[in-house]
Amino acid sequence: MRGSYSDSDFYVAPSTPPPSRRPPITTVGPLGWAKQNLFSSVTNTLATLLTAVVVGALLWAFFSWAIRSAQWSVVFNNLRVIMAGFYNRDEIWRIQITAAILLFLSGLSIGIWGAITRGAFLGVVVTVAVILLVPLIGATIPEPSAYVLIEPERTPSNVTFLGQEGDEITFGVEPLTSPSDAGIPLGFIEQKSRTEWSTQSRAITSGELDPSNYNLVLSVRLLDAAEAPVSADGEPAQVSSTPDNPGGSQTVTLAKTGWYELEVTRDDEANDTNAGYAWLRIKGVELFSSAQDDQTARIDEYGPPPGGDRVLFAEEDAFRFEGTRTFAEFISLQVAPFFNKLALPAVIAALLFFNGWTIGHLGKREQPVRRLALIAWAISPVAIYLVLAGIPGSHFLPSVPPANWGGLLLTLLLTIVGIVASFPLGVALALGRRSDLPAIKWTCTLFIEMVRGVPLITILFMAKLIVPFFWSGLANIDLTVRMMIGVTLFSAAYVAENVRGGLQIIPKGQLEAARALGMNPMLTTTLIVLPQALRAVIPALVGQFISLFKDTSLVAVVGLFELVGIVDTIVSGQPIYRPYQREAYIFIAIIYFVISYAMSGVSYRLEASGAGSVRKMR
Amino acid sequence: MAETPSSEPIIVCRSVNKWFGNFHVLKDVELTVQPQEVVVIIGPSGSGKSTFIRCINRLEEHQEGTIIVDGIELSHDVRNIAAIRSEIGMVFQQFNLFPHLTVMQNVTLAPRYVRRQPRRVTDQVALQLLDRVGIPEQARKYPGQLSGGQQQRVAIARALAMQPKIMLFDEPTSALDPEMIKEVLDVMKELAQSGMTMLVVTHEMSFAREVADRIVFFDEGRIVEIGTPEHFFTNPQHERTKLFLSQIL
Questions:
Q1: Interchain pair A516, B90: CB under 8 A
Q2: How many Cβ contacts (< 8 angstroms) between chains A and B?
Q3: In the prediction, which pLDDT does A100 show?
Q4: A522 touches chain B (CB under 8 A)
Q5: Across the interface, do B96 and A510 touch by the CB < 8 Å criterion?
Q6: What is the pTM of this model?
Q7: How far is B88 from chain A (nearest CA, A)?
Q8: Range in A162-176, A496-510, B13-27 with the lowest mean pLDDT
Q9: Within a 10 A sphere around the Cβ of A351, how many other Cβ atoms?
Q10: pLDDT tens-digit profile of B177-233?
Q11: pLDDT tens-digit map of A349-408
Q12: What ipTM was reported for this prediction?
């Protein structure tokens, strides 16, 4: 006992408590999160910074390549082939019908049984808006100039292009008279002379060739579709370049929509040597996709282009972009044309989906609507097969042999058939492996272990080569169908092992409870065991199905043109796309990723649904 | 109730023997149970009492002797087993509810798929039963959302939904927190008063004393002593019984 206290040892709080304050800014919100998670210790800070640097460098390298120099035209010029393979061109509408049916049914089912989260809804709306907006943005960005090289050894080509009414185009001649002109200008260079130009450019810069010895007489005239000269301000639109008065340019506002032609004439008789190089520069002309469909569509709309056999279209594959693209040019040249193609299908798809969803949502409680949706799903596989494969001898639906199916269509078909068929088969095998009857048990075990013991590629080769050897009747089955069977059997073995893992987690007590209630093994399996076992193995099953989806790429090895096979064919079969393998493969990698990611997203939703959120094993 | 000899016995066990491998788990067990009788089986762990009542609805198979339930002898005939199981409800120590189904679905499952009753009927019966065990408001929940006592009461309702003549209880309160034991025992008492034939394996001596018509004491696979509660608790005859009671009371 100290005995003596001063006044400061006693305290009475004021009658009103102090107001609540906010916590310090560094402990809450994004800042607090970053501090707690990213910079909690020295090691953590170092790890965070190092990762940020590495990831940043990789992303920077990738995006600067993707935006500034990649040629994504290989993708959108071959979009039809990538999506559908060699499916008969006139019958593509059947794939579209199939997609439309599936979209509508999905929308209907989600309207009836599911829920669209606000996030997913917004995602779709934003995606569609972007797909619609990008072509509009792209159209407002002027095209870079196109250059055609005029060389002494070659008769210059004419350039044919499509002009819209009101377009302002500028064309001119830029003589190359000094070594400093030997660099390649930024824009589209006519691709055919590129190699040649590189040689010449090297010769000029090394002093081997003297560009100052310039002696070129050239005239360029603008003609319309009827080969009549176009006039600008009363004068014919024309640029003449002579040794005394080199170069020059002319700007013309086009009076009507249609084909135009730049007629290039070199006056060889005016002087004997006609030495010297020059760029023919054209600004304001839109380059077009060289895909066959687009060419056909243009001819349908504007008629055949004028000019003789030396015509050079202002086509994508005839030109090659040189220099570094800006982001705006990337949008207008690479993204906008792609989205332009997607815009209409995307809008129709979204409309169909939301139509179905609205009907399903309104008819949620109506028995007929629900029953119709189920019936529609039940008959859809047969209907889709009939629409896609056709009926032999039919006029309206001529048969398209499965050998023609390819691209994403084939990949998805292999995946869907594989999943839908291997799931029940796998469950049956898993139950069979646990059967009390040795004959069934051993057969199932033997099948599972044999299939798991060999690589998928072996099974595919077996389906292709060995099975027909044993029984010639099987040789008549289409290779595509045999691959579907091979993929299904392979996947079923793995599904069986996954499901078996799930069967083992059901506590014995539950089976006893079911028996005590008088349930027979059949009822116990379908009502008690499988619902729980399957839910428990959803992650493993979806993992298996994702790898099945990716494994379908192996059928390329046995000669089917699914996504990988078709891209192989494009980049190795068409010389103009040979330099663009990276772009093509990256595009299909994106497709694979998006679909796989969507599948695992569905798996998370399934796991968390219903009893999954509150389930406890006892 | 045991003193109504006019009716036929509902369970008759004659020299039942069972082995797990070489281990002789039930030795010449003889027991006769009258309708509406409540028989409580007590005994130390591993004495075979659980195995014995599991033999009655053939969750375990006995190897010798006869068990006759409601006039049907247990044999390998699947139809006999199914018929007997639908007469007998069973409640387990670990509840053994089906965790992927709601309480309502747990209770209606067997009537719907085994008895093939229409949903309208099963739902109505289930609600009555849940009301009887005192948890009508939990019908839409999943078992994982309930306390242990509530789960065990759902398990009782689930067994009652098959309208059994006999109820077997295998240590129904052993896995429960002390606070929840009473709510389950109350349900069981109510059931006993309503005239249900019950075989109860339990360690709850106060329940045995209050509710049982007869008490059966098991040890090392055989029945050591059978008696009324008064006789059993106040005047046990066998040395083993005396020892057991001195340990627990």
A1: yes
A2: 79
A3: 93
A4: no
A5: yes
A6: 0.81
A7: 8
A8: A162-176
A9: 15
A10: 888 999 999 999 999 999 999 999 999 999 999 999 999 999 999 999 999 999 888
A11: 999 999 999 999 888 888 888 899 999 999 999 999 889 888 888 888 888 888 889 999
A12: 0.91
Ramachandran category for residue A487: left, alpha or beta (phi over 0 → left; psi -120 to 50 → alpha): alpha
Residues A616, B110: C-beta atoms closer than 8 Å: no
Contacts of B143 in chain A (CB under 8 A): 616, 618
Closest Cα in chain A to B97 = A510
CA atoms within a 13 Å half-sphere pointing along the CA-CB vector of A560: 30
Report phi then psi at B17, rounded to 5.
-125, 140
A582-617 burial code (b ≥16 CB/10 A, e <16): ebbeebbeeebeebbeebeeebeebeeeebeeebee
Query: Which tens digits make up the pLDDT trace of B148-185?
Result: 999 999 999 999 999 999 999 999 999 898 889 999 99
Tokens of A523: 């009822």
> How far apart are the CA of A517 and the nearest CA of chain B, in angstroms?
6
Contact A611 B145 (CB under 8 A): no
What mean pLDDT comes out for the span A487-513?
A: 94
Euclidean distance between CA atoms A185 and A164, whole angstroms: 26
- H helices of chain B, in order, are 49-56, 78-85, 103-113, 119-132, 148-160, 178-193, 205-211, 229-234, 239-248
Interface touch A618/B114, C-beta < 8 Å: no
A273 has pLDDT over 80: no
- Tell me the torsion sign for CA atoms A466, A472, A474, A477: positive
Report the alpha-carbon distance of residue A373 to residue A57 in Å, rounded.
50
Q: What is the pLDDT of residue A126?
A: 92
